[in-house]
Design goal:
The protein is α/β, with parallel strands linked by helices. The chain has 9 helices and 9 strands. It binds S-adenosylmethionine (SAM). One of its GO terms (molecular function) is O-methyltransferase activity.
């Protein structure tokens, strides 16, 4: 059975192995690091599948109900879902828009896990790589990244999208705080914000916040379609 999180017992989870007096209080840095390593391995084993369930929900909305989606994908010949998990979103797009050649860029262990699970699809190509280093045209999730990483990922994307007509674009599917169609959705977005703060160096962002990130990454304009429940579809143009 998985060991209990030493920090959870103390109501703290962020700074694993941070040292100092806390280590003595919470049972020592070594125990925390061992727990963290085991937890990470478990997370890595289940991540592609668990995440896929959530992205299936988003994918269904994306290709099913989002009124403007056909227009969004019109003229798009190829697309890379950077950090695309088990490929659920890319497969849904490939099924709904057969003219779009879809690739999933993922970390090698995720690509291996998907291949081993044998539920990949010939409609989608999986490429092992690091999105911090190189990204072809992409549709990706940014909400678990820090501001610096968002800018870095967007810059990598900008380098790879076509600058010739028809020009490429980056599609971001993420929460835009303040664009909530209901109180329940706003509450869901704020819960996600809390999760991102606790689990990752990320956050949910308002439109003004996104605007600054897009400008810093060198993009000139964007269009937000708040049609995906708690998330919006943001088209970002060089
Ligand atoms: C929050 S998940 C999103 C998965 C999927 N796009 C979705 O919406 O369900 C982030 C994904 O990014 C992948 N990832 C993290 N760092 C990466 C990197 N440097 N290069 C490529 N993929 C990465 C992870 O393996 C994980 O599957």
């Amino acid at each position: 059975m998985a060991p209990a999180c030493p920090y959870r017992q103390q109501g703290r989870r962020r700074h694993v192995g941070s040292g100092g007096d806390n280590d003595a209080v919470h049972g020592g840095a070594r125990r925390k690091l061992l727990w963290y390593g085991r937890r990470q391995r478990r997370v890595r084993r289940v991540f592609p599948r668990g995440d896929g369930r959530r992205s299936r929900f988003v994918a269904e909305i994306l290709v099913g109900e989002c009124g403007g989606t056909a227009a969004v994908f019109a003229g798009v010949k190829s697309l890379v879902d950077a950090g695309g998990g088990d490929g659920t979103t890319a497969m849904a797009i490939a099924r709904a828009f057969p003219h779009v050649r879809c690739t999933v860029l993922e970390l090698p262990h995720v690509v291996d896990a998907v291949a081993a699970a044998g539920d990949g699809s010939s409609t989608v190509e999986f490429v092992a790589g690091d999105m911090m280093e190189f990204i072809p045209p992409a549709d990706f999730v940014l909400h678990n990244w820090s501001d610096e990483d968002c800018v870095r990922i967007l810059k990598r994307s900008k380098e790879s999208i076509s600058t010739r007509e028809p020009k490429g674009k980056v599609i971001v599917i993420d929460v835009v705080l303040g664009m909530s169609p209901s109180k329940q959705i706003l509450e869901a977005q704020l819960s996600l914000d809390l999760c991102m703060m606790v689990l990752f160096p990320g956050k949910q962002r308002t439109e003004d916040y996104w605007h600054k990130i897009f400008l810093e990454a060198g993009f000139t304009r964007y269009k937000i379609s708040p049609a995906l429940g708690s998330r919006s579809l943001i088209e970002v143009y060089p």
